[in-house]
Amino acid sequence: xxxxxxASLQPAVWRILDANFDRAREGLRIIEEWCRFALNHxxxxxxxxxxxxxxxxxxxxxxxxxxxxxxxxxxxxxxPREEQRTGIEQLLQANLCRVQEAxxxxxxxxxxxxxxxxxxxxxxxxxxYALESNLLNYRRRQLLANSRLYLVTSAAxxxxxxxxxxxxxxxxxxxxxxxxxxxxDRLAIAKQMCQLCHHYGALFILNDRVDLALAVDADGVHxxxxxxSIALARQILGAQKIVGRSTTNPEEMERAIKEGADYxxxxxxxxxxxxxxxxxxxxxxxxxxxxxxxVPWFAIGGIDNTNLDDVLKAGAPGVAMVRAIMNxxxxxxxxxxxxxxxxxxxxxxxxx
Length: 352
What we know:
- The protein contains 14 helices and eight strands.
- It folds into two domains: 8-142; 147-342, Aldolase class I (TIM Barrel), CATH 3.20.20.
- The radius of gyration is 25 Å and the shape is elongated.
- It has an eight-stranded parallel barrel, surrounded by seven helices.
- It is α/β, with parallel strands linked by helices.
């Protein structure tokens, strides 16, 4: 293509750059607002602001002057998936992708306009990739640290309805535990439950199965003492995902924390049919965890409305429940009652 023909295409190049500068800045502003007002994270909010300002400097008057909204055939184009978001994570992910795609367009068409802008947008795209990892990672861990009640599911014919009812009560952390179903059924249920949790802004953890957690894009996995190492689970799932570990004594707790568990289960506090034949760790282990645990933790095992107060008095910052919620006549009310009791206890601050 000769210089003359390239010059004739310059207005189209300017229009493309103009549209994508706007797209990238709008997407960054949406992400910035969440970092600022929801996460109260100054560094991430400032990174978004800095990138918006850099884009504004590249968005020159001559590029802006090429805008022709009236004749833009794309203003009426849409897709059903753009009309609604199922949760905050999907909203953030959609806008992160929007920014990344816009920066790629600026990088390529910028080569016809300004090599400096092309190079700068390429480097900015990598900054957005880093922001994406940090944002999703921080959000998961903040939600984990703020969760006081952890539902671990048990088999039920109306499983998803019960989980949704619990989520409607304010639950923010769910673990899908299923030792009986075949993998095909387990995968199908896990997909639906993951979508349900994300719709309500809750974390979805899958028990034991790292492969299924990866397949459904769960927020993490919960491992027993006999499961694979925390390091291997994190290698498979990625650094953004949560890895929890069950512990039954101080030695297991110390090892799990040393190996990098994001949270631990402490118990079973009382004997429970969920762990048939396993001796209770007792309230003493809860007291030990209250003094020594340095990551978020949940007392678990036979905890219900009759003994929840004793567990809280022993120092538990949060509890995991199975039957008390899954077998409740009204899971929504059961969750609200438990959260009411938990919220009377001061929140323990864990480092994110």
